[in-house]
Amino acid sequence: MATIDDGVIANPRARYTRRLRTPGNSELWAWIFMRASGVLLIVLIFGHLFVNLLVGDGVGAIDFAFVGGKWASPFWQVWDLLMLWLAMIHGTNGVRTIINDYAERDVTRVVLKSLLYLAFVVTVVLGTLVIFTFDPCPTGAAAHLLPSFCTA
C-alpha cells in the first residue's frame, strides 16, 4: 500500500487494515471499563476529599494521627484501596491507549508498555502494602513520638 511518504496518497476507498490485532473485544471492554471506573472514581475521590477536607477541622487536621485513625477502620482501608487500584488501572489503561496510538515502532511500543506495566505493579503493590501494614502505634517506639491515641 502506498503512503504519503512515497509521494502518493493512499486510496481513501481502500479497505482499512488494523495495525494491531487484539483478540476478541478487549478494546471494547477496556473502553467500557474506562467509563465505569471514571464514574466510580468520581464518587471515591469526592468522598475522600469531603471526609479529609470538609468534615472536622479541615486540612489542618490531616496529620499522622488522622491517617492512623482513619486506617484503623477496615471501611477506610477498602475505600482507599479501591481508589488506588481503580485510579492505577484507569490511568494505566489510558496511557496504554496513548502508547498504542503514537508509538510507531513495535520495539518502542513494547519497551514503553513494559515500563508502564512495571510502574503499575510497583505502585499498586507498595500502595496496597502501606494500606494494610500501616501501624500508627509500633511497639517499642518512644512515647513522645506516638500519636495521642496510642498507649505507650
UniProtKB/TrEMBL annotation:
The keyword Ion transport does not apply. GO terms for molecular function: metal ion binding. InterPro entries: SQR/QFR_C/D, SuccDH_FuR_B_TM-su. Keywords: Heme, Iron, Membrane, Metal-binding, Transmembrane, Transmembrane helix. It is found in: Membrane. It comes from the Bacteria. Pfam families: Sdh_cyt (PF01127). The chain crosses the membrane at residues 28-55, 75-95, 115-134. The keyword Iron applies. GO terms for cellular component: membrane. This is Succinate dehydrogenase cytochrome b556 subunit. It comes from Beutenbergia cavernae (strain ATCC BAA-8 / DSM 12333 / CCUG 43141 / JCM 11478 / NBRC 16432 / NCIMB 13614 / HKI 0122). The lineage of its organism: Bacteria, Bacillati, Actinomycetota, Actinomycetes, Micrococcales.
